[in-house]
Structure formats: structure tokens, C-alpha cells
Specification:
- By secondary structure, this protein is mainly alpha-helical.
- It has helices spanning 33-39, 49-73, 79-108, 116-129, 134-146, 175-196, 222-246, 248-274, 289-294, 304-307, 315-320, 329-340, 351-361, and strands at 6-8, 19-21, 281-282, 298-299, 346-347, 364-367, 375-379.
- A three-stranded antiparallel sheet has the order 3-7-6, with no helix packed on it. Strands 1-2 form a two-stranded antiparallel ribbon.
- Helix 3 (79-108) packs across helix 8 (248-274).
Length: 382
Amino acid sequence: MGAGGRMSAPPSAKKSEADIVQRAPHSKPQFALSQLKKAIPPHCFQRSVLRSFSYVVSDLTWASLLYYIATNYFHLLPHPLSYLAWPIYWAFQGCILTGVWVIAHECGHHAFSDYQWLDDTVGLILHSSLLVPYFSWKYSHRRHHSNTGSLEKDEVFVPKTKSKLGWYSKYLNNPLGRFVTLTIQLTLGWPLYLMFNVSGRRYSRFACHYDPHGPIYSDRERLQIYISDAGVLAITYGLYRLAVSKGLTWVLCVYGCPLLIVNGFLVLITYLQHTHPSLPHYDSSEWDWLRGALATMDRDYGILNKVFHHITDTHVAHHLFSTMPHYHAMEATKAIKPVLGDYYQFDGTPFYKAMWREAKECVYVQSDGDKSKGVFWYQNKF
């Protein structure tokens, strides 16, 4: 296990001591961002149009192949087997399309190529095809990167202090409550965030990613929000025409269920990157950009790390250098680990176990009192 995360106790230790959380460092680091950059080979910051497009082509080829098999052969299977074949298709297609989502996310960071117009064009097409308002999310996500770990200004999965929890929270702090919460979070969490800013930063008035005049965006960004909305509406109309032509069931089986998998993985990946008992959060008295960027967790999704273009296991490097293309992130992560030392956070717990554990242990945040007033840690005791 890397610094932070969990350390396994000796076999003779008591069960209650077998999974010890070591808090990440929260004091100002002795290294600067420039030192981290110097540790990374210069070529890691170079973006290649051809190489970036090769991942787009690869992902879309796999997605097309899965679509072809499903629509041309599933109906030939004996009736019981078709019920098994479709869920397998949904899982595989959902994972592949999550990779497509990640490439569009990379476009939003200007990490796809050296040309902003090309990044935005590719990102708009790919994200719109997954019903994501590209520019809308690009700008709110940029603010997330600018304010990671800030209790006042971060944009996503902002934890609440105990006093700000809803009255129902203590009734959900049990296995059934956690199951219900995670189910809603993984199925409805993404559209609820886009439409109603659920789990996002608190604004003085209603915030919505589809509203060009909402508080999330500045005046110079509003036109592009209209473009994002137009992209989503165009794909929605196309899906409507497909439903009229081929039937709603066909659209749900071919597109809708894989999209649910994409949305679920998107929420889960982001949740686990920023939710862990060892990670600090800061109020305005303590927060600074570098400590906030380091308050994130690399995870291990097994073979899905590659399918998801390593957004899962190189997230620390991504928060430090977000314009770096994903195909150099593994090399960059290895290069900065010696400099980061204990500030590098990694947890290799399987994601399905980590999801349940974090839902149990990371209910709210509170400070340790006078010792570190502006630093907040996850707690779960009521």
C-alpha cells in the first residue's frame, strides 16, 4: 500500500485493528509544483493528435463491434441465453463507453491535442453522444480542479459537516440505508448533479448545468452552454427518432442500459477518488491549491484501469498536471512518487469493497479542534 490508505496489521492483531487508516499529511509540503514537474520526463507533457485519435478509433471500434454482435446475433440465441447475453453486452459496452467518456473529459482539459478548437470539437461530439453537456461540465470541472479539497469552493462530492447533515442521515447509517444511498447515487447521481447540482458546491441560488444564466457560469461562457444544450438536444432527438422507428425497448437495450453503466462508473470513479478516511478537506483558513490537489486518491480497478485510460490509478498526477495526456500519466506517476513521498495516496482495495466501506466510514467531516481547526476529516459517529 502506498502512503496513506490502509496498512494491514500482523495476523496476531485483533480484528478491530486489522484495517488501520493512516491519515495523509496535511501540512504544507516542502516541495513545490515546479519540483514535481522537473521530475517528470519532458515528453510526458507532449500531446499527439495521432496517438490521441488512435484511442478514439480503438474505443469506437470496440463499441461498434459489440453493437454489431448484439443486433445481428442475439436474436438467434435460444430464448434463455438472450436474457444472459444482453446484460453481458450492457456491462462490456458500458465499460468501453466509459473510456470514450474519459477521452472527452481529456478534451475538456486541453490534453487531447495542441489545438483547442480540435479538443472542443472532439469533446463536444463524444460527450454529446453520451448526453453530457460538454462545455457546461468542462467549466464546472475546471473549477473543481481549481478548488479541490475546499469545503467552500469545490464543485463535486463536497462533504458536509455534522451540523449540516439532513435529519434523515442517521437513519441511513446502516447496511440497508447505505445500499439504498449507493443505488440512488450510482443510477441517478449523475443526472441529479447535472440538473440540480446534487452533491455539488452550494450556490446562493438554483444551479443547473443546462442553465446558461445560472450561477455556475460567467458571462463569457454562456454562449457555449447553449451549444452544449444543443448537442444534448440533438442526440435526444435522434434517440427519439430511433425509438419511433425501432421501438423504445430496442433503444433501451442497445443504448440506454450501457449509458446507465457509464453514468454509474463516472459517479463511482469520482466518488472514490475524493472520498477516503485518510484524505483531508480544508476550509478557507487552511486551503491552498497544492494541498487540495494532493487530497485525492489513486485506486486500482484491475483490467478496467486500461479500459478507462488510467483515469483511475493516475488521478493524483492528473490533478497536478491536468493538461498531460492520459497515455503519459503512468510514467509521470512513477516519476513523482519519490518526490511526493507520504503525500502520494493510493488504495488498492477492490472498488466494489471500497465503495461500501467509504459509504460506511465517510458520512461527514469535522476538524480535530484547536489542534488543526481548518483541516477536516471524515467521520461516521452520530
